[in-house]
Specification:
This protein has 327 residues and is an all-alpha fold. It has seven helices and no strands.
C-alpha cells in the first residue's frame, strides 16, 4: 500500500504538523476574534458613548446658559446682572469647548452633524448679544415666550434631534458589533469543531497505523512464546518500520518452527536409539541387557522377602533363523 511507504518517523512528523496546525488555527481564530471584538467595542465606547456624553453636556450647558439669561432678565440689581452675565459667559465658553471636543473626537463628519445646532446656536447668540448690548432693555425678549426664548427652544430642538440621531446611530453600531460578535463566534466555533475533528482524525490515524499494529505484533510474540507456532504475524505487507519488525518476527517464528522440528527429530532419534539398545531388532523383544537388569531387580526384591520366578524358553535353531534373517 502506498500509504505505508512513509516511514513511522515521517508519519509522526506529519501528525505533529497536523496537531500544531490545529493549535495554531485555534490560537489565530481566538486572537482574531478577540481583536475584532475589542476593536469594535473600543470604537463604540470611544466614539459613540463619548459623543453621546458630549452632546448631553452641550444640551445641559445650553440650558444653564438659558437659566443665567433669565436671571439676567429678571435681575434689577446691577450686581446681580453682572453675576448673571458672568455665569452666562462661563456656560457659553463651555458649550464652545464641548463643541470643539466633539468635532475632535468624531472627525470630519461631526461638522455636518452639528450644522443644525450651530445654525440655531449662532442665531441665538447673535440675538443674545444684541439684547445685552442694549443694556438689557426689552427684558420681555429674554423671558418665557420672548424672542430669545424661541431661539433657545430652536437650539434645544436642534441638539435633541442630534442626540436622538446619535443614539440611533450608536444603537445601530451596537447592533452591528453584536452581529459581528455573533458571526465571529460562530466562525470560531466552526473552526474549533473543524480543528477538533482534525485532531480526532490525527489521533485515530496514529492509533490505527502505529499503536494497534505494534500491539498486534506484541500479542503475536506473546502467543509465539507460549507455544502457538501456527499464528500469522500481522503487518508483514507494510513497507515501513512496522513492516520490517513484522518481517523479523516472521523470520523468528519460522526459525522457532524449524528448531522445534529439529528438537522433535532428535528426541525421536534418541528414543529409537534407546529402543534399539534394549530390544532385539528381529523380534522386538527385550534383549540380554534388559533381561539382566530385570533379573537383578527381581533378585533384589527376593532378598527383601519377596519372591520371583524365571521361565526359560528355548527355540531350536533360532540362531540359524536369526542369521538367515540378517543375511
Amino acid at each position: 500500500m502506498a500509504y505505508f511507504r512513509t516511514s513511522i518517523f515521517g508519519r509522526l512528523i506529519l501528525y505533529s504538523v497536523w496537531l500544531a496546525s490545529c493549535v495554531v488555527i485555534l490560537a489565530v481564530t481566538s486572537i482574531s476574534t478577540m481583536h475584532v471584538i475589542s476593536k469594535q467595542t473600543r470604537a463604540l465606547q470611544q466614539v459613540w458613548l463619548v459623543g453621546a456624553t458630549q452632546l448631553g453636556k452641550i444640551d445641559y450647558d445650553a440650558e444653564v446658559f438659558r437659566v443665567a439669561e433669565l436671571e439676567r432678565a429678571m435681575a434689577t440689581d446691577p450686581a446681580d446682572q453682572r453675576q448673571a452675565d458672568r455665569q452666562a459667559t462661563v456656560e457659553r465658553d463651555k458649550v464652545a469647548q464641548l463643541r470643539q471636543d466633539y468635532l475632535v473626537s468624531r472627525g470630519a463628519e461631526a461638522a455636518a452633524t452639528l450644522a443644525p445646532f450651530d445654525s440655531a446656536w449662532n442665531r441665538y447668540m447673535k440675538a443674545h448679544d444684541a439684547w445685552i448690548s442694549g443694556s438689557g432693555g426689552a427684558g420681555a425678549l429674554a423671558r418665557v415666550g420672548g424672542e430669545l426664548d424661541m431661539d433657545d427652544q430652536a437650539v434645544n430642538a436642534a441638539i435633541d434631534q442630534i442626540i436622538d440621531e446619535h443614539a440611533d446611530r450608536g444603537q445601530w453600531e451596537a447592533d452591528s458589533v453584536a452581529w459581528l460578535v455573533q458571526r465571529v463566534s460562530l466562525l470560531a466555533e466552526g473552526v474549533t469543531v473543524a480543528a477538533l475533528i482534525l485532531l480526532g482524525y490525527v489521533l485515530g490515524r496514529a492509533r490505527k497505523d502505529i499503536i494497534w499494529p505494534l500491539a498486534a505484533i506484541t500479542r503475536t510474540m506473546t502467543l509465539l512464546a507460549s507455544g502457538d507456532r501456527e499464528i500469522k504475524v500481522p503487518g508483514h505487507e507494510r513497507d515501513d518500520e512496522i513492516g520490517e519488525m513484522a518481517a523479523a518476527c516472521e523470520v523468528f517464528r519460522v526459525n522457532v518452527v524449524v528448531l522445534d522440528k529439529a528438537h522433535e527429530a532428535a528426541r525421536l532419534a534418541e528414543a529409537q536409539a534407546q529402543l534399539l539398545a534394549r530390544h532385539d531388532m528381529l523380534t522386538g523383544l527385550p534383549n540380554r541387557r534388559v533381561f539382566s537388569s530385570d533379573l537383578q531387580e527381581a533378585l533384589a526384591h527376593a532378598r527383601t522377602g519377596g519372591c520371583c520366578s524365571v521361565l526359560l524358553l528355548d527355540l531350536d535353531d533360532f540362531k540359524r533363523v536369526s542369521t538367515q534373517s540378517w543375511a
